[in-house]
């Protein structure tokens, strides 16, 4: 292993299904036990960009649950997410990642003692960097979705935000405290959830001041991925979309979290912005999310599209998307880690708009068409290679 190329990866929600799948998958691909299926950055032209290797990633994380990674991985085998025997073959990698798990921030801590919580996160990240002598660290949020944040004047100005935290005012949810800790320690921050994270003017300004990159938000893994590919086709053919209804059935931790209407609203807001941005006109587009515990780690999305053709004739498209959320998310997470590490290496700061390809609600851009997002990504990754 090339010590100079190592990159630290700190996963918020580090003992969850998505994080466990990503860490196991990284070790499996690095060891030659699995193919890099689903990893955009593991195929040309990105293979020429000098991205960090999966075997050079050092994992740690925060979580509010205490289930060890080995047990979580065994459960994922039972659920059909991980191949039988793979966690056992990679026991050393899982043990190493487990040794770097630390207690996360609870909602109560964020409300009662935000300053102490922030200080603890900063200390954990600095200690992780020091223990492994890491030049680059990427913090990536894969924790449960939060409810939308209540607006506060402190969100607009960095000085006001820090003053509010000094007074222990509850102005930030856990995701934003993690983002702030990443920025203060010089880490890249990536939000794979629809939680607020770094998407506040004060935190974005602090990222610019500390010269660290941000990316997000809400990973585009399934139904919205299909929308971002199909909606441009309707626009290109001059077919008018009249309505686009979606029903999402899911279980596991995500389903349980989104059973809370307040937390589900964050997801609905994230999923709902895409169609109007692509088509250029309002579309009736109700989205329903239902927790079905029996589905476990799997999810199903059914979409019903009504569109208008020549002479006003109405027609329909229906499609069903069935998949395993962790298996869909894990390769994208590994892609984002490699790309955020590249941004750190290049000294880039602020919002990385060129990573829109990976997100339902991409920060810093209103471009939602999948093919154009891919072109943005390709140009950004290869710009220094060509030079």
UniProtKB/TrEMBL annotation:
Q: Ranges for the Myo-inositol-1-phosphate synthase GAPDH-like domain?
A: 222-326
Q: Which GO terms describe its molecular function?
A: inositol-3-phosphate synthase activity
The cross-references to Pfam families, in alphabetical order and at most eight, read:
Inos-1-P_synth (PF01658), NAD_binding_5 (PF07994)
- Which biological processes are named by the entry's GO terms? inositol biosynthetic process; phospholipid biosynthetic process
InterPro entries for this protein:
Myo-inos-1-P_Synthase, Myo-inos-1-P_Synthase_GAPDH, NAD(P)-bd_dom_sf
User: What superkingdom heads the lineage?
Assistant: Bacteria
Which family is it part of?
Belongs to the myo-inositol 1-phosphate synthase family.
Tell me what this protein is called: Inositol-3-phosphate synthase
What species is this protein from? Solirubrobacter ginsenosidimutans
Which classification does the entry list for the species?
Bacteria, Bacillati, Actinomycetota, Thermoleophilia, Solirubrobacterales
